[in-house]
Design brief:
Blueprint lengths: L1 H15 L14 E13 L4 E6 L9 E6 L14 E9 L4 E11 L24 E4 L4 E3 L7 E7 L9 H16 L8 E7 L7 H12 L10 E5 L2 H11 L3 E4 L2 E7 L2 E5 L5 E6 L5 H12 L1
Parallel strand pairs: 8-9, 9-10
Antiparallel strand pairs: 1-2, 1-4, 2-3, 4-5, 6-7, 6-10, 8-13, 11-12, 13-14
């Protein structure tokens, strides 16, 4: 009986997926559920992917299904074998369902970095010079980090998702505290979080944001970890090189749709490691920085 219900549900929801789509056509009664799983097939032409997903708590058991995906930026990274975290939107009023707020967690081969688009920076390439403004209102450039191993990630302060910017900033602040206490590496490694929301993330805002992660009771120390922002064109240049995709969410213009990239840069300014998604652990990044510093 349970198998019959699952098959019936699958047939119904797949049939609904054949209807015309409109990215703004979302009813007030649409429901949202967290969905995790592995991509098994990709149909870029029709903007769909087949996902072998885990149980969706309160909604449906594990199964393999086709889902519409409305976020155009994902198609450069979405490939069979990658794991994703996402939000399943079920709009019964319009007979539609789709995935959004997608985070690509891991490469198809465990332990390997994800494939990097040939149009963006790859391991071994020199990182172009850039100049931004840090949380204290001072200029910060790639050349400032010459001789040190540097990790770069991208965030925006209003991001509400625990597996996106919040996790990136938690990881970076944890690494900064650990590095500051380790005499062997504290002068050899640095961290830089770049905001892609210059309209909101002023230097003062980023300073307050950073203090919130470093600990309000402690004297803020941005020696190891800095946060920076710049003009949109300058931030775009850096983001494009590293394959960071972001755009304003049309359904909520205070939010961004974006992927995740964390990059390790050698003391000579070359890309040595790329972490995709948010599944990496602080110790993994710290080890990569330590290796690069040597």
């Amino acid at each position: 009986m349970r198998l019959f219900i699952i098959v019936l549900f699958s047939a119904f929801i797949l049939a609904c997926g054949t209807k015309p789509e409109n990215t703004n056509d979302v009813s007030a009664t649409a429901k949202r559920y967290p969905l995790k799983g592995k991509v098994t097939a990709v149909d870029k032409a029709n903007k769909k992917a087949t996902v072998e997903h885990e149980e969706v708590p309160g909604y449906m058991p594990p199964m393999t299904m086709d889902f519409e995906i409305r976020e155009n930026w994902v198609w450069e990274d979405l490939q069979p074998g990658v794991r994703i975290q996402s939000e399943l939107v079920v709009d019964n009023a319009n007979g539609k369902y789709w995935l959004e707020k997608i985070a690509i967690e891991a490469a198809s081969i465990p332990g390997q970095d994800p494939a990097v688009d040939p149009n963006v920076g790859q391991v071994g390439q020199q990182v172009p010079e850039f100049t931004l403004t840090d949380q204290d209102g001072k200029p910060v450039s790639l050349s400032d980090y010459k001789g040190k191993a540097l990790a770069i990630t991208f965030i925006y302060s209003r991001c509400p998702l625990p597996e996106f910017c919040i996790k990136m900033s938690t990881n970076f602040s944890d690494i900064a505290r650990a590095a500051a206490k380790d005499d062997a590496i504290k002068d050899k490694v640095r961290l830089l979080s770049i905001s892609f929301d210059p309209e909101t993330d002023t230097p003062a805002k980023l300073r307050s944001y950073g203090i919130g992660y470093l600990g309000k009771d402690a004297k803020p120390d941005f020696t190891v970890w800095k946060l920076a922002v710049g003009k949109d064109a300058e931030v775009r240049k850096v983001a494009d090189f590293f394959g960071l995709k972001y755009r304003i969410d049309e359904t909520d213009k205070t939010q961004f749709q974006h992927n995740l990239r964390t990059i390790v840069v050698s003391p000579e300014g070359k890309v040595v490691r790329i972490f995709n998604g948010s599944t990496w652990k602080p110790q993994e990044l710290l080890d990569a920085l330590g290796h690069a510093a040597k």
